[in-house]
Amino acid sequence: MNALSILSASELDLALQELQGWSIERGKLHRQFQFSSFVEAFGFMTRVALVAETIGHHPEWCNVYNRISVDLTTHDAGGITMNDIHLAHKMNELAE
Ligand SMILES: C[C@H](O)[C@H](O)[C@H]1CNC2=NC(N)=NC(=O)C2=N1
């Protein structure tokens, strides 16, 4: 499985089992995060941005006050790939 090949339904199911809080919504890997304040939420986004930049993979996300809604997909491949799974795991680590 290449990092940029779209995951099959069964590969996606398997990956989701290990990925706390994430689901598939409208064909994208989706999770909502909630923090104790806007500053906590924005700090998280800043840490994720540095990781995203180093791996060349950027989230679609929206922040309102202390909440962040994230959708991950690989535009270059036209679907969900291991790059999305990888970034989702990183985001879970950074949200702890
Ligand atoms: C050239 C550049 O690395 C690519 O366009 C990267 C940038 N960030 C990206 N981010 C996401 N989420 N999907 C991509 O396919 C993607 N491609």
From TrEMBL:
Pfam families: Pterin_4a
Keywords per UniProt: Lyase
EC main group: lyase
Catalytic function, reaction form: (4aS,6R)-4a-hydroxy-L-erythro-5,6,7,8-tetrahydrobiopterin = (6R)-L-erythro-6,7-dihydrobiopterin + H2O
EC number(s) per entry: 4.2.1.96
Top-level taxon of origin: Bacteria
GO molecular function, one term: 4-alpha-hydroxytetrahydrobiopterin dehydratase activity
Gene Ontology BP, a term: tetrahydrobiopterin biosynthetic process
Keyword Lyase tagged: yes
UniProt record similarity statement: Belongs to the pterin-4-alpha-carbinolamine dehydratase family.
Stated name of the protein: Putative pterin-4-alpha-carbinolamine dehydratase
